[in-house]
Write a sequence for this structure.
């Protein structure tokens, strides 16, 4: 049965993955981390991640264009890398996001996004 | 080795973690709670201000109440409730871990934030959930301090975290924007429920509730606790005495008959007004079948008037609506919360 650590290990097998974490985006706290983080600081990265998610969530422009719309992914591209955020939807109350940092050259955005979708679903779904 | 030491909660936690101990760090004060340590790693924390794993899973509907209860019955004595839920296929390992992590950090905030609260360590104490996650104690302590700072960055008034939540009667601006969690809070805030009550009622993390409340206080959407002057009672909904004002409004309705031909008029009340005054039904006169909730005790229940007996019902039939709902609880949510806490406390004693 895949747990949190297993999920992060899998995320690190995504081509180009440099680091991964699960972040509580109300508090900006990394619930679980693995690999590298930008500036070697998972906690600072989590705080930044949380601000990005909250900014997107609190701008009704993005999530309220149609009724019952939900934020799924946030993708930030930089010259050196990709930062992918996938919201983890649990039935119980939580506000979690799966974060993977990819190397720009080795990473493939489409593959990474699909893998993260599967990982986030598997983490909470009965199989 | 029944050691009991008193020190600042965070320092004591760091010390027992350094000694790789197993046990429970219990912290007094308000709200207080406990942090469970297993071989020096934090495995769980609980506080009355933070919904526990059980509340989070059942109030969201993720688990049925009886599923949770049977896992508790089966696994509590062996401290393996969490493992059971996964083994029986009710939860995935990922869900359980995420839920326990969330609940633990949430409760740890309430347990450890007050650095002056009395704390003691009970070696050997285990939690019925069992070890699901293993968190570095220093990380927990650091995160608690960070959360304290985060709240003060939003709106520096710790009274908001404990005082009953009172939405302002009139918003301070023509147009206000609120988030979905804030809406839930405003809908459920009845002027009596505290943030802890609301967290249990909504099944949301206690810290997340406080965060939203501080944001709403900053936006002027809830009354700041210190300005709640006693001379403005119209905004404070005082608890209503139960069952006192009910009979006047409802006494004209006849007692309905669920089954059986026996009409109510066969047993008229001794007083001439023909009023089947249900609120005067004494507690000592239980209806024949079913287990209806007893009338609330009070002076008005002990009068000499003998009320009409209830019509005979089939076993298992529900009480007539008018009778069953004769004294609607004024703030049912708070009662539910209280009941839940009592139940949780009883379970923990097993």
């Amino acid at each position: 049965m895949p747990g949190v650590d297993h999920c992060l290990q899998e995320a690190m097998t995504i081509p180009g993955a440099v680091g991964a974490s699960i972040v509580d985006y109300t508090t900006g706290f990394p619930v679980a981390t693995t690999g590298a983080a930008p500036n070697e600081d998972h906690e600072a990265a989590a705080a930044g991640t949380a601000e990005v998610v909250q900014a997107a969530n609190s701008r009704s422009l993005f999530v309220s264009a149609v009724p019952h719309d939900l934020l799924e992914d946030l993708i930030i591209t930089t010259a050196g890398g990709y930062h992918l955020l996938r919201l983890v939807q649990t039935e119980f109350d939580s506000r979690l996001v799966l974060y993977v940092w990819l190397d720009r050259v080795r990473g493939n955005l489409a593959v990474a996004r699909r893998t993260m979708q599967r990982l986030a679903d598997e983490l909470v779904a009965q199989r | 080795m029944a050691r009991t030491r008193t020190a600042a909660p965070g320092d004591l936690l760091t010390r027992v973690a350094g000694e790789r101990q197993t046990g429970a760090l219990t912290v007094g004060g308000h709200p207080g709670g406990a942090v469970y340590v297993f071989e020096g790693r934090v495995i769980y924390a609980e506080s009355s201000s933070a919904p526990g794993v059980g509340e989070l899973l059942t109030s969201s509907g993720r688990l049925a109440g009886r599923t949770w209860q049977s896992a508790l019955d089966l696994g509590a004595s062996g401290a393996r409730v969490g493992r059971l839920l996964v083994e029986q296929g009710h939860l995935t390992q990922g869900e359980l871990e995420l839920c326990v992590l969330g609940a633990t950090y949430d409760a740890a905030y309430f347990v450890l934030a007050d650095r002056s609260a009395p704390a003691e360590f009970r070696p050997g104490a285990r939690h019925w959930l069992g070890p699901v996650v293993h968190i570095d104690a220093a990380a927990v302590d650091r995160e608690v301090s960070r959360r304290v700072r985060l709240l003060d960055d939003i709106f520096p008034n710790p009274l908001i975290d404990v005082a009953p939540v009172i939405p302002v009667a009139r918003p301070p601006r023509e147009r206000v924007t609120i988030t979905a969690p804030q809406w839930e809070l405003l809908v459920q805030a009845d002027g009596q429920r505290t943030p802890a009550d609301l967290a249990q009622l909504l099944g949301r993390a206690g810290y997340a509730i406080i965060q939203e409340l501080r944001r709403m206080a900053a936006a002027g959407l809830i009354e700041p606790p210190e300005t709640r002057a006693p001379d403005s009672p119209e905004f404070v909904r005082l608890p209503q005495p139960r069952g006192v004002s009910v009979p006047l409004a409802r006494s004209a309705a006849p007692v309905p008959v669920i089954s059986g031909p026996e009409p109510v008029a066969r047993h008229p009340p001794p007083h001439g007004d023909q009023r089947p005054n249900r609120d005067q039904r004494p507690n000592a006169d239980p209806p024949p079948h079913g287990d209806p909730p007893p009338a609330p005790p009070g002076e008005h229940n002990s009068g000499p008037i003998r009320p009409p007996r209830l019509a005979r019902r089939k076993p298992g039939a529900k009480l007539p609506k008018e009778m069953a709902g004769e004294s609607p609880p004024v703030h049912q949510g708070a009662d539910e919360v209280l009941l839940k806490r009592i139940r949780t406390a009883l379970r923990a004693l097993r």
Notes: The mean pLDDT of chain A is 89. The interface with chain B takes residues 1-4, 6-7, 22, 24, 26-29, 31-32, 58, 60, 88, 90-96, 122-127 of chain A (CB under 8 Å). Strands of chain A lie at 17-24, 29-35, 73-77, 81-88, 96-103. Residues 4-124 of chain A form a domain with the Beta-Lactamase fold (CATH 3.30.450.30).
